[in-house]
Amino acid sequence: MSSDFLTPFQARIETQLTSIFDATPEPERLLDAMRYATLGGGKRLRAALVYMSCDALALDASSGDSAAQAVELIHAYSLVHDDLPAMDDDDLRRGKPTTHRQFDEATAILAGDALQSLAFQVLSEDESLTPEARIALIKALAQAVGANGMVGGQSLDMLAEGQRLSLEALTHIHNQKTGALIQFAAQAPGIIAGRHVEALQTFGHCLGLAFQIQDDILDTVGTEEVLGKQAGVDLRQAKSTYVGLLGLEGAKSALSETTARARAALTEAQLLTNSFDRLIQFVADRDH
Fold this sequence. Notes:
Mean pLDDT: 93
Oligomer: single chain
CATH superfamily: Farnesyl Diphosphate Synthase
Strand order of the largest sheet: 1-2
CATH architecture: Orthogonal Bundle
Number of helices: 14
Number of domains: 1
Largest sheet: 2 strands, antiparallel
CATH class: Mainly Alpha
Structural class: mainly alpha
Low-confidence stretches: none
Helix content: over 70%
Radius of gyration: 18 Å
Strand content: under 5%
Order of helices and strands: HHHHEEHHHHHHHHHH
């Protein structure tokens, strides 16, 4: 499925992120690594999700700018650290050398650290939002990123290497590792608007899980040329996956069921826009 519908959101967030780095000229090598990790690539799905939620809630896109920036900065940091030798030990990301290969490990670690702190700074400085909304967004993002969210999920994922997990345990890991940040992106405009937070949370939860199931499928059937990164990483690291537990057809069935739940959550709240519908289909059909 074409990702052309994401182009306006990608262009908007790329401009936003570029302006942040341009406003901070020093230290040069660290910022070069931060730019390298963040700009000029990626689907920008999380930022697009923020803007789509703004549209569904009849909010101006500018209301979601700081949340979109923050979620992409956090995502960039997580990829930099995930690719390190101590984690997934990947050499390629988005078809180019990973940040620690392009620079060095120490610079990559520091760039990730700086990107994470910058995300919270961006939210705290958005004076277009009420102080209450800023605090609520910072709290929600911290929860999505921390020990009970993305970082906790990564830790559990590493500890599970070489083990055959139950489907329940695997789902728990991925709800934290991948789903928490996607859920934040979906619900952030609801927090800003003060409505439909629960429906957007449910949608984001299901979309994040669908994203991970498709990742597992692609890691099994994809090629390095199409993925822009090494294929078969999960198998080499002896990780449990949806394909490993359910088989390829079972994983595809689980993907279909999960995307149906994502769509239902929006339909029930009367929030299913055309953009949301296309995004759900894109997550299920993407090849990289």
